[in-house]
Amino acid sequence: MIHSTLCPILWRLPHVLPRASHVLLLRTDLYSTKATPTRKPQILAKPIDVGTLTNEIPRHGSQFSELEPVSIIEPVASTKTSKKKKTRDDDWREMTLDVKKLPQYYLMLSKSRLTSLVVMTSMAGYSLAPAPFDLSTLLLCSVGTGLVSCAANATNQFFEVPFDSQMARTRNRVLVKGMLTPLHAVSFAAVCATTGLSILYFGINGLTATLGATNLILYTIVYTPMKRFSILNTWVGAIVGAIPPLMGWASCMDSLGSGAWIMAGILYAWQFPHFNSLSWNLRPEYSRAGYRMMSVTDPGLCRRTTLRYTAGILALSCAAPVLDVTNWWFALESIPLNAYFTYLAWQFHQNSDSGTSRKLFRFSLVHLPILMILMLINKKEWSSKKQGKDGQDGKS
Amino acid sequence: MVNVRVCFQKHTFHNVIKIWRMSLTSDSKVPKAMNHDVIGPPDKISNLRPVIVHIPKQESSIEKQFRLKREEIQKWNETFWSNHNTKFFEQKEKFTANHAKKYSSESSVSPMTSDEMSVFYKKFLDENWKTHQMYNVEWYRKNIGLLLLALRVTVFKVARTWKIISKL
C-alpha cells in the first residue's frame, strides 16, 4: 500500500516502521485561515492502520498537531496580500494602541461569541418566566448580563496570558499579542463590571445583581485558577454556565421558580457533552500547559459524564411539563432532539476519537438553541398570561 | 517556589543572551526608532512573545522600577516555559521511543494510538502538578504586583502631565 515516494516521509515518524498494512494519510493544514492567517499550509503525515480507516480522519485537531510537518509548501497563489499578512505577525511591532481597532479589541477581550451565548440564555430565562412581558426589563437584563460577562472574560484573559500563549486555540488573544496593556484590559473589566452590576441592581433587582456578582467571582476567582488545580473545574464551569438563565428569570420574577431551575439544570448538564467533546481533541495542549481537564486526567470519567449528562438533559426535558413549566408537547418534541444528542454521546462513549467528539461538539452547538426555542414555544403560561393581562385590563 | 527561583537565577544570564540573539537572528527586524515598547513573534520553544521595554529619556524612579519588574517577570516566564516545554517534548519522544522498542521486539509494529498517547499526557500532567502549583501562585502574585505598579505609573504620568499643563 505504501507508495515508494512516500517512504521517506514515514521514516520521519520515529515510532513507526513502514509495514504493508499501514497507509499513510496525508492532510494539508488544519487551522482556519481566519484565526491563524500567518500559518503556512503544511502537509501533515499520519500513519494509519487499514482497519481503522473509517471515522479516524480528524479534520482539525490534536492528532495532527502532534505530528511533524513533512514539508512546508508555499501557497500556490502567493499573492502580495498574503505576504503582507505574514510579515505583520512575524514582525516585531511597536506596542502602540491602535484606537481605530479599539472596538474590535474590546469585542475580542469580551469573547463576544461566548458573551452572546450568555445573553441569549439569560433572555431565554426571562422569556420563560410566567409574567407579563416587559421590553425595557428584558433589555436592561440583557445589557447588564452582557456587561458582567464582558468583565468576566476580560479578567480571565488578564490572568491567563502565559497559558493562552501555549495553545493554538488561544494564541491570538489581544493580551497575548500585546495589542492592549494588562492595565487597559483590567480597567475595561472594572468599568464593565461596575456598569453591568449597577444596571442589574438599580434597573432590575437585588437578586439578579447578586447572581451576576456571584457568577463574576465564581468565573474569575474560582474557575480560572481551578483549571490548573483540580479536575473539579468542569463542574464549577457548568455552574457558571447555569447561572445566566437564573438571572433572566430573577429579573422577571424577583424570585426563582421551578422553570428557572429546569432551565439552569439543562444548561448545567449541557456543559458536559459540550466541553468534554471539545477538550478531547486538545489533550496534548492541555497536558503541556498544565490544565487539569477531565479529558486528560480521567478519560474514562470524561466519557461517562458526557453520556450521563446528555441522558440528564433528556430526563429534565421530560420533567418540564410535570413541573408545569411547559406543556406536554415540549416533552414529545424534545425527545428526538435529545435522543440524537444522547446517541452521539453514546458513540463518543463507546469509541472516543476525534471524529465522534467533533460530531458531538458540533451538535451541541445546534442542540441548545433549538431546545431553548422549543421550550419557549411550548411555555405553559402563554395563555394564562394573556388571561391575566385581560383581567388586569378589565379591572383598570 | 524555591525551585522556580533557583532555576530563574540559573537561567537569567542565558535568557538575556537569548533575547539579544533572537533580536539579531530573527527573520524580521526589530524597529530601530524605538519610541515605544516593541513586541516580537512568539518564541519557538516557550511560545511567549518577547518584549523589549523602551527606556524613556528622563526616566523617573517609578518608571524604572516598573520597567525592571517587567523585564524580570518576562525572563522568569521565559525560563519556566522554555524549560517546561523542552521537558514535555523530550519526555514525549522518550515515551514514543519506548513504545516503538516494546513493539518492535514483538515483531509487530503498531503506531501510537491516541489512547496510548493519552497515558503519557496524564502522566506528564500529574508529574508536574506541583511545579504548576508553584508557578501559578507565583504568577498570580507577580501579575497582580505588576498591575498595581502599572497603575501607579499611570497615576504618576497623569499627575506629571497635569503639572505641565497647569504651569502653561
Automatic annotation (TrEMBL), chain A:
Keywords: Heme biosynthesis, Membrane, Mitochondrion, Transferase, Transit peptide, Transmembrane, Transmembrane helix. GO terms for biological process: heme A biosynthetic process. GO terms for molecular function: protoheme IX farnesyltransferase activity. It holds the Pfam family UbiA. The chain crosses the membrane at residues 229-250, 256-273, 309-330, 360-377. It catalyses: heme b + (2E,6E)-farnesyl diphosphate + H2O = Fe(II)-heme o + diphosphate. Its main location: mitochondrion. CDD domains: PT_UbiA_Cox10. It is an enzyme of class 2 (transferase). InterPro entries: Protohaem_IX_farnesylTrfase, UbiA_prenyltransferase, UbiA_prenylTrfase_CS, UbiA_sf. GO terms for cellular component: mitochondrial membrane. It is a multi-pass membrane protein. It is found in: Mitochondrion membrane. Its EC number is 2.5.1.141. The keyword Transcription regulation does not apply. The keyword Coiled coil does not apply. It comes from the Eukaryota. Belongs to the UbiA prenyltransferase family. This is Protoheme IX farnesyltransferase, mitochondrial. It comes from Gryllus longicercus.
Automatic annotation (TrEMBL), chain B:
InterPro entries: COA8 (IPR018796). The keyword Disulfide bond does not apply. It is found in: Mitochondrion inner membrane. The keyword Transit peptide applies. Keywords: Membrane, Mitochondrion, Mitochondrion inner membrane, Transit peptide. GO terms for cellular component: mitochondrial inner membrane. It holds the Pfam family COA8. GO terms for biological process: intrinsic apoptotic signaling pathway. Its main location: mitochondrion. It is a peripheral membrane protein. Belongs to the COA8 family. PANTHER family: APOPTOGENIC PROTEIN 1, MITOCHONDRIAL (PTHR31107), CYTOCHROME C OXIDASE ASSEMBLY FACTOR 8 (PTHR31107:SF2). This is APOPT family protein CG14806, mitochondrial. It comes from Gryllus longicercus.
